[in-house]
Amino acid sequence: MKLSPPTLRPCAPSVKPVRAPATGHDAAAPPRGRRRRSRSSALARFDFTWFIPAVVKSRRLLAEVPLAPLVLQLVGLVTLAIMWLGDIS
Description:
Elements lengths: L38 H5 L8 H6 L1 H30 L1
């Protein structure tokens, strides 16, 4: 029994190319005029209200973030004042 190497055949595409509808405009460009939005796309609009649950959930952490540098700045200011007052006498 003689074995032969497999032959490579080009694969034919199984999906037919999609053609643009004959509307008189370029298929890549959106149609001119006002677009109608479906109700689901209007509800799925991205705006600031998406962040509100995250802000409410982590409000304590968001309060601590500006508080920590303020405390560190005050400690540095007090340290500098103590060194300056100790240098006077």
